[in-house]
Amino acid sequence: MDSLILALQFLTVLPLKIRKFSEKKMASSMIFFPVSGLFLGLFLSGIGRLLLMLNFSPLALSIILVVALVILTGGMHLDGLSDTADAFFSGRPREEMLEIMRDSHIGVMGVLSLVSVMLLKIGFLFSVSAALKTTALLLMCVLSRWSAVLAMFLFEYARMEGKAKVFIRGINLKVFLSSLAMVILLAFAIWRLKGLLVLAIVAGCAYLLGSFSRRKIGGITGDTLGATIELTETVVLFIMCIG
What we know:
Layout: H1 2-11, H2 23-29, H3 33-53, H4 58-73, H5 76-88, H6 94-102, H7 108-127, H8 133-154, H9 163-170, H10 173-217, H11 222-242
């Protein structure tokens, strides 16, 4: 139970405060990253149903749901996306890119990445058929959180120290396979074989993003993990539009 609470604590702004925890507990919390995504998806689905009952238009509903997800996660993944965009499109050497990621100021590319991703999510969610809306929200939240686990398992950390390094240092084959089993179970439960196909596509995207990050800065960081979550959310919604 502590591992699940830790996962929710790391990935959401829910008032869950476990102040003392071991590195082993932090590592095992990654098993429940997909479950944390499930909680987020269920919460968003509940909001969506309420808005439909109140006769909100599909566009307004899509905007509110995307904003609600930002609020529930504290915008931390969007922060990672903007920092990553500023760094990767700066044309600077590796060390300077890492410094740009630490800078609290946001640049033009960071702003553009935020605006682009938010608009794409709203547009894709608006375009998803009503019958698949709940499925899209659940898959989006579940698979994107697991994509971070995959990236942490496959790629080294680009910094000497940092928040994400504790997770990367603690992850092992057992933790990864447990998280994989969890996300396969959830993907199949949500959308059967199609859910597994979307999972495979998300895994491929996470690998490509991690490889790109490794070429740029020698590995991944907490910021690139946030970017991976944001971008895989967008990919899932895009797939749901054409699925």
